[in-house]
UniProtKB/TrEMBL annotation, chain A:
Gene Ontology CC annotations of this record: COPI vesicle coat; endoplasmic reticulum; endoplasmic reticulum-Golgi intermediate compartment; Golgi membrane
Keywords assigned by UniProt, alphabetized: Cytoplasm, Cytoplasmic vesicle, ER-Golgi transport, Golgi apparatus, Membrane, Protein transport, Repeat, Transport
Family label: Belongs to the COPG family.
Coiled coil, from the record: none
Stored SUPFAM superfamilies: ARM repeat, Clathrin adaptor appendage domain, Subdomain of clathrin and coatomer appendage domain
Gene3D superfamilies: Coatomer, gamma subunit, appendage domain (2.60.40.1480), Leucine-rich Repeat Variant (1.25.10.10), TATA-Binding Protein (3.30.310.10)
Membrane topology: Peripheral membrane protein
GO MF: structural molecule activity
GO biological process assignments: endoplasmic reticulum to Golgi vesicle-mediated transport; intra-Golgi vesicle-mediated transport; intracellular protein transport; organelle transport along microtubule; protein secretion
The name this protein goes by in its record: Coatomer subunit gamma
Keyword Cytoplasm set for record: yes
UniProtKB/TrEMBL annotation, chain B:
Ranges in a coiled coil: none
Keyword list, A-Z: Cytoplasm, Cytoplasmic vesicle, ER-Golgi transport, Golgi apparatus, Membrane, Protein transport, Transport
Family annotation (SUPFAM superfamilies): SNARE-like (SSF64356)
PANTHER family the UniProt entry points to: COATOMER SUBUNIT ZETA-1 (PTHR11043:SF2), ZETA-COAT PROTEIN (PTHR11043)
Domain of life where this protein originates: Eukaryota
UniProt similarity note: Belongs to the adaptor complexes small subunit family.
Function: The coatomer is a cytosolic protein complex that binds to dilysine motifs and reversibly associates with Golgi non-clathrin-coated vesicles, which further mediate biosynthetic protein transport from the ER, via the Golgi up to the trans Golgi network. Coatomer complex is required for budding from Golgi membranes, and is essential for the retrograde Golgi-to-ER transport of dilysine-tagged proteins. The zeta subunit may be involved in regulating the coat assembly and, hence, the rate of biosynthetic protein transport due to its association-dissociation properties with the coatomer complex.
InterPro entries associated with the record: AP_mu_sigma_su, Coatomer_zeta, Longin-like_dom_sf
Protein name: Coatomer subunit zeta
Chief site of localization: cytoplasm
Length: 873, 174
């Protein structure tokens, strides 16, 4: 308080801080006066304040010194000074994890929590629960129950919130207090209501029925607390999401009714909940959008921010729903809060027309340096989305991005820009050279190894195929001279690609390689030596196999095979073909465009789905000796969704066999199935050689059975086959409540849908980054060509999609994207046929009253070419 | 956005001075487990906010609501999915409570003279990340800081006179 000010303090100006030069040891020394009689409350209070201040500054207290101070402090409970007592509670909470034997204050706290002084009771409960464990909690259970229903709000709230904290540790004890919490929920005090609701939900959240009942009760009775309303809205929208409840559900009506609540906090929570619901139609969004629109002109910055941030999210999925707010958003683009301005502009970029792009970009570049990295990333993502929408604007965007790239910024921000530029380059061939030039400039001064290597890889891929490849060499070689090992190694690989593609550059590249062979790092030297030797052979096939298109095997698979090879010494050299192929990622998943928290977890190399299957199958003795797993299909459903038994099948292809894995689920709670097999009748010369049953299928626990089939050896062209499938099993009826089965059972069977094996099951996708080189590498020894008319297909897009899914091969060179307004297109597909035969397909498509297709197939094996052409026909 | 509905709303409450130094900091979860990370975060926050008076920002993936007065900066921090207005309610409650307790003298020196009041007030507003109270009147009432050595019964009368006297004295000095 002001009167406490010392004369000296006043003179020394506002820079003085009575706590500034506190020494921990001096303060602990002072704490000895706690032991003096009589207690001087003012001095003791001041010392406790100093201790808490030090703890708050992050000062470390050793266990012994903390324990000593703590024990001295316990004496202060003899004083009746209110503030001093309250500071004791705080000290107890702050020291609970540092000092030993804090439980000695239990009885003092229990006395205060049940005493007459209301000022003490709430804080005493909270301090007590902080030092209590499950066994001690049972000892004070009676008091806790009383406190929860106490008529003093601070006591009740403290007990409820402390109970919530205790749930993590002592769920079984706290759950016995449900009735008390229920009673507290009907309190008149708004905070008690909120805390009771929170505790009730936490205790019941795993019981959907109980949650539904609770929601029904509270949504009908109406609550007073806006906080409790927000909580209810969250519970309701979670329940809606889980039950996939339609938007005609009473829960949705409740959330919508909250849009008319008189408290802004509740209105916003409801609007935000509706916006985040999956599958909302524009009509359902409209009321939420219109309240957000009102908030846009609020004098409160937090409300404007919340509104425009939520509108920004709406604009990603439903730009048209936000168009009505364009005028309000325009007013926000000059908001003094730059976060609001940025969000407004990026929203407008999504909803506005092409003509407004230039103006908005100009506005945003005037203050882009003032905003935080998180929002810069938002801007970049908006630009990225815009480039896909208006490809013609790419030069404006590219210019803007290159300016941003030159500014300061963290890794996430730079990565977003680089990714954006790369995607523009891939979408718009005419922007390739400008984009590459900007990236070259960027790596001249780039502190992020990951980005530098990524760009070098891109330069290696795209640079050699530009009209003037030589101009990139300088940028790349500069990296070899100036950068860290990882970047140098990436630069060497990029250089090699220039040498392999451009004969006139080869001599200079070889000279540069020579220099790299003297690098101080062994990885760099190894790469240089390897590429040097390959390049000197001057053979297109070698270049294609070892420089352009790298290994296509699965890395965990390779590791395992090599380990196996070292365990069994053999005269034969290691055969690359025994290694399972990598399953190519289908397409890069677009990350959600939102300023999300940057995850701190390092990315782990997760084993692919196929690596997991390989592991599982290898553990079954009957399947040993089949060789490496070649391909696993996506699961095929063999039953309708809502039937007694749900069965889906994964087809695993090996060199000469196929294994069908049936994942079965029994949805009848009064049956136990045993010895489950799926019997298969092939239409062609496929031979079923083994059934492996699932021993038992209890209610709702999935199990797998397998069928092993040999592929016909004599006719390699027989790649497709239809199997009729019947599930056979022993049924034992059981009590639905206990799950106890009867002693006797009876045999039964269940007819499943037919299963098709097609040519796609025999081909694994492989991405060839440089298709042209791979095409040359395979050569035209077994090339065949045929022309087909696809009468039923109306567009090129449709034709491309059909061919890809039919053959199950990997589209290369982004040829799966058909440019707009074109009448012809060339599709490049690459894959490996069962038995490790490379196969490449070039399909020329022409659109004229249906689609005409000329297919050219190359492979290292003649039968493969025949199989493909036969199956297309 | 499928976060579990929960009462745990506040990740941290901070008060920094106009050099960006920590006067008070309470972290309620493990977003920044070590003192070093906390201080780095506070530095970042201060750099991004001390020049603009714009109330709300998104930093390191967290929503930060803030308010400054003379030489103090108040921050309340929550997840980026949190209802911004809830965080704002906490910030306003903290500021208004302190304003009453410090008799409108919300500045660094007055605060440092009343650190115990600040500690107790924050303890009444947020408990382990849960909003405990949002009404400043209730908070001030519960903190119940007494004037020095004044018996409880006489407190109100003397306190009124005292504060009136001080108000006059300070208005003359200014």
């Amino acid at each position: 308080m002001i009167k406490k000010f010392d004369k000296k303090d006043e003179e020394s100006g506002s820079g003085s801080n009575p706590f500034q030069h506190l020494e921990k040891s001096a303060v602990l020394q002072e704490a000895r006066i706690f032991n003096e009689t009589p207690i001087n409350p003012r001095r003791c209070l001041h010392i406790l304040t100093k201790i808490i201040y030090l703890l708050n500054q992050g000062e470390h207290f050793g266990t012994t010194e903390a324990t000593e101070a703590f024990f001295a402090m316990t004496r202060l409970f003899q004083s009746n000074d209110q503030t001093l007592r309250r500071m004791c509670y705080l000290t107890i909470k702050e020291m609970a994890n540092i000092s030993e034997d804090v439980i000695i204050v239990t009885s003092s706290l229990t006395k205060d929590m049940t005493g007459k002084e209301d000022v003490y009771r709430g804080p005493a409960i909270r301090a007590l629960c902080r030092i209590t464990d499950t066994t001690m909690l049972q000892a004070i259970e009676r008091y806790m129950k009383q406190a929860i229903v106490d008529k003093v709000p601070s006591v009740s709230s403290s007990a409820l919130v402390s109970s919530l904290h205790m749930v993590k540790m002592s769920y079984d004890v706290v759950k016995r207090w449900v009735n008390e919490a229920q009673e507290a929920a009907s309190s008149d005090n708004i905070m008690v209501q909120y805390h009771a609701l929170g505790l009730l939900y936490h205790l019941r959240k795993n019981d959907r029925l109980a949650v539904t009942k609770m929601l029904n009760k509270f949504t009908k009775s109406g609550l007073k607390s806006p906080f409790a309303y927000c909580m209810l809205i969250r519970i309701a929208s979670k329940l809606l999401d889980e039950t996939e409840g339609g938007h005609d559900s009473p829960l949705f009506d409740f959330i919508e009714s909250c849009l008319r609540n008189k408290n802004e906090m509740v209105v916003y929570e409801a609007a935000s909940a509706i916006v985040h619901m999956p599958n909302c139609t524009a009509r359902e969004l409209a009321p939420a959008v219109s309240v957000l629109q009102l908030f846009c002109s609020s004098p409160k910055a937090a409300l404007r921010y919340a509104a425009v941030r939520t509108l920004n999210k709406v604009a990603m999925k439903h730009p048209s729903a936000v168009t009505a707010c364009n005028l309000d958003l325009e007013n926000l683009i000059t908001d003094s809060n730059r976060s609001i301005a940025t969000l407004a502009i990026t929203t407008l970029l999504k909803t506005g027309s092409e003509s407004s792009v230039d103006r908005l970009m100009k506005q945003i570049s005037s203050f882009v340096s003032e905003i935080s990295d998180e929002f810069k990333v938002v801007v970049v993502q908006a630009i990225s989305a815009l480039c896909q929408k208006y490809p013609r604007k790419h030069s404006v965007m590219m210019n803007f991005l290159s300016n941003m790239l030159r500014d300061d910024g963290g890794f996430e921000y730079k990565r977003a820009i680089v990714d954006c530029i790369i995607s523009i380059i891939e979408e718009n061939p005419e922007s390739k050279e400008t984009g590459l030039a900007h990236l070259c400039e960027f790596i001249e001064d780039c502190e992020h190894t990951v980005l530098a290597t990524k760009i070098l890889h891109l330069l290696g891929k795209e640079g050699p195929r530009t009209p003037q490849p030589s101009k990139y060499i300088r940028f790349i070689f500069n990296r070899v001279v100036l950068e860290s090992e990882a970047v140098r190694a990436a630069a060497v690989s990029a250089l090699a690609k220039f040498g392999a593609q451009n004969d006139d550059l080869l001599p200079s590249v070889l000279v540069l390689m020579q220099r790299c062979m003297m690098d101080s790092d062994d990885e760099v030297r190894d790469r240089a030596t390897f590429y040097m030797n390959v390049l000197q052979q001057k053979q297109k096939a070698l270049n294609a196999a070892y420089i352009f298109n790298g290994l296509s095997v699965s890395i965990p698979g390779l590791e395992k095979s090599l380990h196996q090879y070292t365990l069994e010494p053999s005269e034969k050299p290691f055969d690359m073909k025994t290694v399972p192929l990598a399953t190519t990622p289908i397409t890069e998943q677009k990350t959600e465009i939102a300023p999300v928290a940057t995850s701190k977890l390092p990315e782990k190399l997760a084993p692919s789905r196929q690596d997991i299957y390989q592991e599982q199958l290898a553990s079954i003795p009957e399947f040993q000796g089949l060789g490496p797993l070649f391909k696993s299909s996506e699961p095929v459903q063999l039953t309708e969704a809502e039937t007694e038994y749900v069965v889906r099948c994964v087809k695993h292809t090996f060199a000469r066999h196929m294994v069908f894995q049936f994942d079965c689920t029994n949805t009848l709670n009064d049956q136990l199935l045993q010895k489950v097999v799926v019997q298969m009748e092939p239409s062609e010369a496929y031979e079923v050689i083994h059934y492996i049953p699932a021993p038992s299928l209890p209610y709702s626990q999935p199990g797998s059975c397998y069928t092993l089939v040999r592929l016909p050896d004599d006719d390699p062209t027989a790649v497709s086959c239809t199997f009729s499938c019947t599930m056979k099993y022993l049924v034992r009826d059981c009590d639905p409540n206990t799950g106890e089965p009867d002693d006797d059972g009876y045999d039964d069977e269940y007819v499943l849908e037919d299963l098709e094996v097609t040519v796609a099951d025999h081909i694994q996708k492989v991405l060839k980054p440089n298709f042209g080189a791979a095409w040359e590498e395979v050569g035209d020894e077994f090339e065949k060509e045929e022309t087909f008319a696809l009468a039923s297909v109306r567009t090129l897009d449709e034709a491309v999609g059909n061919i890809i899914s039919f053959l199950g091969m990997q589209p290369c060179e982004r040829s799966d994207k058909v440019p707009e307004n074109k009448n012809s297109h060339v599709l490049f597909l690459a894959g490996v046929f069962r038995g490790s035969h490379d196969v490449l397909v070039r399909a020329r498509l022409a659109l004229a009253d249906g689609v005409t297709m000329q297919v050219t197939v190359r492979s290292s094996e003649e039968t493969v070419v025949d199989v493909i052409l036969a199956s297309v026909g | 956005f499928d976060t579990e509905p929960s009462l745990y709303t506040v990740k941290a409450v901070l008060i920094l001075d106009n050099d960006g130094d920590r006067l008070y900091a309470k972290y309620y979860d493990d977003t920044y487990p070590t003192v070093k990370e906390q201080k780095a975060f506070e530095k970042n926050i201060f750099n991004k906010t001390h020049r603009t008076d714009s109330e709300i920002a998104l930093l390191e993936g967290l929503t930060v609501v803030y308010k400054s007065n003379i030489d103090l900066f108040f921050y309340v921090i929550g997840s980026s999915h949190e209802n911004e207005l809830m965080l704002m309610a906490v910030l306003n409650c903290l500021f208004d409570s302190l304003s009453q307790m410090l008799r409108k003298n919300v500045e660094r020196r007055a605060l440092l003279e009343n650190m115990e009041g600040l500690f107790l007030a924050v303890d009444e507003i947020v408990d382990g990340g849960v909003i405990l109270e949002s009404d400043p009147q209730q908070v001030v009432h519960r903190v119940a800081l007494r004037g020095d050595d004044v018996p409880l019964t006489e407190q109100t009368v003397t306190q009124v006179l005292q504060s009136a006297k001080e108000q006059i004295k300070w208005s003359l000095l200014r």
